[in-house]
């Protein structure tokens, strides 16, 4: 069943929307990624006030997402960074005046700069996903980059939440997210460790909950599936759905984090490590070694 997704977005209004990423990120509401920056809560205001540095890793992830999930959308303008520069063919040096000038021209033209190796890895990841039999079924039909806003009851109040879902496949009971990982990390036993470390289980549970809060009566989703691709040849792909116990654990953590966010917001106080001095002892293994590392 096709989701009832609207493009008539208004800030602070619950719903499921088809809006640009820039609109979503500017919109009010607390996301799972924001909650992940609250350990301790004092980190969140600093995180929100600091412009995000765009890394090559992030660029690769964005390009993979767009080429898999939105193949009909025009791709960003790309520029492949030369391996050499100057008449003598020197190795590229980001501190060299000529290299800085070349980079400045590309950025002013609105281009995304990649090395040839980075571009090749993006192509390798995309091709591997699109050739994977299960992925061909998953991405045959559906909606991409769906934004959801809710007002959820948390503790003694309500919190405006937001989530942006990679893929809502048609005729499915799952929500799908694409993850690019390092060599060996797409293996199921490695990915679950990575998922816990990076709060992917909280992401999965929160996205499913927010979707069902809006669409549960017409298009409920019971599962959350990760399409995981390794970013080195042979670009291995794994399709992994989180088990129900892991999803429930993630949902419990999500609501604990939401409640902490609500209390900080209401009090306008974002605590750090506490105001009182503390006494700490070294771990037991230090004593066993006589204080030597």
Q: How much helical structure, as a percent, in the residues? A: 40-55%
User: Beta-strand level of the residues, as a percent range?
Assistant: 15-25%
Major sheet characteristics: 3 strands, antiparallel
CATH domain topology of the domain at 15-51 and 132-266: Lambda Exonuclease, Chain A
Q: What string gives the helices and strands in order?
A: EHHHHEEEHEHHEEEHHEEHH
Broad structural category: alpha/beta
**Mean pLDDT, rounded to whole units?**
94
Summarize the structure.
The chain is 41% helix and 20% strand.
Plain-language structure description:
With 293 residues, the protein is α/β, with parallel strands linked by helices. The protein has a domain at 15-51 and 132-266: Lambda Exonuclease, Chain A, CATH 3.90.320. Helices cover 41% and strands 20% of the residues. It has helices at residues 21-26, 32-35, 43-49, 56-69, 97-108, 116-131, 133-138, 188-197, 200-215, 244-267, 284-288; strands at residues 15-17, 78-80, 84-85, 90-91, 112-114, 142-154, 157-169, 174-181, 223-230, 237-241. The strands form four sheets. The chain has a three-stranded antiparallel sheet. Strand 6 (142-154) and strand 7 form a beta hairpin. Helix 4 runs parallel beside helix 6 and helix 9 (200-215) packs across helix 10. The longest helix is centred in the C-terminal third of the chain and has 24 residues, at 244-267.
Q: Which helices and strands occur, and which strands form pairs?
A:
Blueprint: E1 15-17, H1 21-26, H2 32-35, H3 43-49, H4 56-69, E2 78-80, E3 84-85, E4 90-91, H5 97-108, E5 112-114, H6 116-131, H7 133-138, E6 142-154, E7 157-169, E8 174-181, H8 188-197, H9 200-215, E9 223-230, E10 237-241, H10 244-267, H11 284-288
Parallel strand pairs: 2-5, 8-9
Antiparallel strand pairs: 1-6, 3-4, 6-7, 9-10
């Amino acid at each position: 069943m096709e989701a009832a997704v609207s493009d008539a977005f208004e800030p602070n209004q619950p719903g499921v929307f088809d809006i640009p990423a820039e609109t979503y990120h500017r919109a009010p509401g607390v996301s799972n990624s924001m909650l992940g920056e609250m350990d301790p809560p004092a980190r969140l205001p600093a995180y929100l006030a600091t412009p995000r540095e765009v890394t090559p890793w992030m660029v690769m992830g964005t390009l993979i997402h767009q080429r898999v999930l939105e193949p009909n959308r025009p791709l960003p303008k790309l520029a492949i960074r030369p391996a050499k520069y100057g008449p003598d063919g020197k190795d590229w040096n980001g501190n060299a005046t000529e290299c800085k000038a070349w980079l400045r021209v590309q950025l002013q033209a609105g281009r995304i700069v990649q090395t040839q190796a980075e571009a090749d890895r993006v192509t390798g990841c995309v091709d591997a996903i699109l050739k994977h039999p299960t992925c061909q079924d998953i991405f045959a039909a559906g909606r991409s980059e769906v934004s959801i806003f809710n007002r959820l009851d948390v503790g003694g109040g309500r919190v405006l939440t937001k989530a942006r879902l990679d893929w809502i496949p048609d005729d499915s009971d799952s929500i799908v997210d694409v993850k690019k990982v390092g060599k060996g990390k797409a293996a199921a036993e490695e990915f679950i460790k990575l998922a816990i470390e990076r709060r992917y289980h909280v992401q999965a549970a929160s996205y499913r909950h927010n979707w069902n809060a809006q669409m549960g009566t017409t298009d409920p989703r019971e599962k959350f599936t990760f399409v995981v691709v390794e970013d080195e040849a042979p670009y291995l792909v794994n399709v992994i759905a989180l088990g129900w116990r892991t999803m429930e654990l993630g949902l419990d953590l999500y609501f604990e984090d939401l409640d902490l966010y609500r209390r900080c917001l209401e009090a306008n106080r974002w605590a750090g490590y506490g105001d009182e001095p503390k006494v700490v002892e070294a771990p037991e293994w230090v004593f066993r070694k006589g204080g030597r590392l």
